[in-house]
Amino acid sequence: MTEHKTVLKGLEGVYVTESGVSLIDTENGALYYAGYDLRELVEHSSFEEVMFLLIHKRLPLRQEFSEFRELIRRSMELEPIHIEAIHRYARIVDVLTLLVILISLKGTGRQGGDPRDVNSAVDIVAKMGSFLSTIVRIKEGGDYVPPRSDFSYAENLLNMMNGGNYEDEHVEILDDLLIIHADHGISASTFAALVAASTLSDMYSSVAAAILALKGPLHGGASEASYEQALNIGDPAKVPAWLEATLSQKKKVMGFGHRVYKIYDPRAVVLKEIIAKYLDRMDGKVRLVYEITKALEDYGQKYLAPRGIFPNLDLWTPILYRMIGLPSDTFTALFAVSRSAGWTAHILEYWRDNRLIRPLHLYVGEYPRKYIPMELRGDS
Amino acid sequence: MTEHKTVLKGLEGVYVTESGVSLIDTENGALYYAGYDLRELVEHSSFEEVMFLLIHKRLPLRQEFSEFRELIRRSMELEPIHIEAIHRYARIVDVLTLLVILISLKGTGRQGGDPRDVNSAVDIVAKMGSFLSTIVRIKEGGDYVPPRSDFSYAENLLNMMNGGNYEDEHVEILDDLLIIHADHGISASTFAALVAASTLSDMYSSVAAAILALKGPLHGGASEASYEQALNIGDPAKVPAWLEATLSQKKKVMGFGHRVYKIYDPRAVVLKEIIAKYLDRMDGKVRLVYEITKALEDYGQKYLAPRGIFPNLDLWTPILYRMIGLPSDTFTALFAVSRSAGWTAHILEYWRDNRLIRPLHLYVGEYPRKYIPMELRGDS
């Protein structure tokens, strides 16, 4: 076992499982869901179909997809216990924490381990969306809006959030955003889900663990930080000076760099294409953030690309989040809603051949040490 | 990178970090906390001192320990938001889920990353104990009992749980149990905490992730299952036949086997010594469970020891849990209370040299696949 005495801190480059959910092609800058190019799915597919694809590793047939969508819509309905908890906590706890509480409530008394439990996977993704929309709605003084059976998942999210106050193009943009964030291999949050699931903790609890990992600024929190960064810069003309000062102080530039990519993040490429489509309809603060982001990309690449650091998706997402009216404290929560499709697909896949995730540590420190009674230790 | 293409499923035998919190000596069957033998600590130390030891890697001096205990006691006081949530949820959600909710509430709006944040570590362990005791108390129709400044952590737990209705020896037993479960290297729950903490998610959220992993029957749930097993057997005389039937059906015997031990679990040795001390005061159902467990150990070892499977601590803990009056649905929760000392110590230690835990997966499946529109896929 000597060859393993190396400490693999951060597990960089370490393969922890086999998976057919997604493939990140870091050489050619492409992301595939069950073999389908993300770009093609954004153009032709829907988030519901991507949910099906991630779980079943194939595209659905007409009849089964119709049943699948019906299951999603039914599962989007909230129970009184959830609506009540949202009323109680929406104004005093942050959105991700409230999602953890709401999903945990559903995990009570359950056990995990069944790789065929598609119903729980669908229930989680459906509920996550309804939770987020209802949190925003109730925080703004509104009441719970039930899901409509004639609406897509994305349209239900907007309708439940805004009670009819949204535009058709917002539905398209949200559907695209949901697809883009749906999976990305074994990210830290997905790995947290697998660690919990590997003890046969239930699927709801495993997803709650994932959200708790997504909370961190090194993971899901990056898009909110990237938005704050753009607002703080405040003016595209200030970008070059800001960037030079930030880099000379060796501070982190949000929206750049990613553990697995040493090239341009393919998700950011797709995001830029979507933004280009709606550019003429962007104005006010969103337009300003766009101009600042554009300047950040241009100047940032000049300095950072030679070091192998490229823009990632968090540089571009805030523009689209704000364009569809999402409050900035819910950016990471929308990421969680979308990624719950990937989390649940990975959990189901892992349970097909479950193995408890239980690593080791290398002990550093002296031993054995002799216990010395307090009175012989000396004072203060 | 070819040498890493092996999939290290379950991370068995993989070192993921350096740590001085505890050392598991699997060859000699010993467990050390910061170099001190568990057996010596159970005999001479207290849970509060072990908390200090795990965080600071040394025993406290008189004056600093007095301040440390004072901090623990103050931190044990509950806020109205927690008491209210316990009243609301104690009867409808399981105890671990409620602990997740209560700890998550405290994580709202926080960020992690500070290795010197001892106050949060102490607050978490203090609150976990108060949460558990108050959940039990309120479930049984009582009201919140505030912590007393003249009581130890263990005594406060019993007093807050039972409102004065406990014996001196229960305090000693509980203190021992808390010490025995305080740390055990990078167990699945500790690893879940580290994965969340590595994204710089806050300490409360990271501990919530740990509890969610502990929920699983392959990890923390084992002691409750072991107790159920003893009750189901019902009679020590039935053990040999039950064991043969169970083994011939290749079913799992609870309380036997552990990923890291191929010898007798040293914690189980300590537990047996404690049980021996109180044996003459055990009667009724606890005595029956003891007799069944004893028979399980004797016959179980005969069959399982040759295969390298030995009794673990979960075989013995239920006897002591029940002896101090803990309801069987709170066994795993008490484990969580105790282990929160280890979780927080590991988190603080990891943040000294933080590295995002972000592994890879080996993609299995075809790609690229060409998207086919629904109408060309055929029906049903």
Short description:
With 380 residues, chain A is mostly helical.
Structure explained in plain terms:
The structure is a homodimer of 380-residue chains. By secondary structure, the first copy, chain A, is mainly alpha-helical. Chain A folds into 2 domains: 227 residues, Citrate Synthase, domain 1 (Orthogonal Bundle); 101 residues, Cytochrome p450-Terp, domain 2. Chain A is 55% helix and 5% strand. Chain A has a 3-stranded antiparallel beta sheet with strand order 2-3-4. In chain A, a hairpin with a 2-residue loop joins strand 3 and strand 4. The mean pLDDT of chain A is 95. At the A-B interface, strand 1, strand 4, helix 1, helix 3 and helix 5 of A face strand 1, strand 4, helix 1, helix 3 and helix 5 of B.
Give the secondary structure arrangement, pairings included.
Two copies of one chain form a homodimer.
Chain A: E1 15-19, E2 22-25, E3 30-33, E4 36-37, H1 38-44, H2 47-56, H3 62-75, H4 80-89, H5 95-107, H6 118-139, H7 153-162, H8 168-180, H9 188-197, H10 203-214, H11 222-233, H12 239-248, H13 266-278, H14 284-304, H15 313-323, H16 331-351, E5 360-363
Helix pairs in contact in A: 1-8, 2-16, 3-6, 4-6, 5-6, 5-10, 6-7, 6-16, 7-8, 8-13, 8-15, 8-16, 9-10, 9-16, 10-16, 11-15, 13-15, 14-15
